[in-house]
Amino acid sequence: MLFMVVERFRNQDAKPIYQRLKDKGRMMPEGLAFVQSWVSADLSRCFQLMECDEPALFQSWISEWSDLVEFEVVPVCEGKETAAALAGQL
To answer: For residue 90, how far is the Cα from the chain centroid?
Structure first.
């Protein structure tokens, strides 16, 4: 299952996040997979596409970063899957 994770950097400060990432890595539990990320131009947010079958795994990962980041985790699916699911109603 895919999830879009919106990270809001506390105090709009990306430097401590990148320092921890450099020092400790992503600190993700096995079963939670990073796919891709994008950072807003003002360095205040990051958008990460993640994949996992056990949404509870996010709790462990978020606990490692919650002092620096505020998280929103949104289950998502590809547009083509949505189009197929709605095809009979169009």
So the answer is: 32
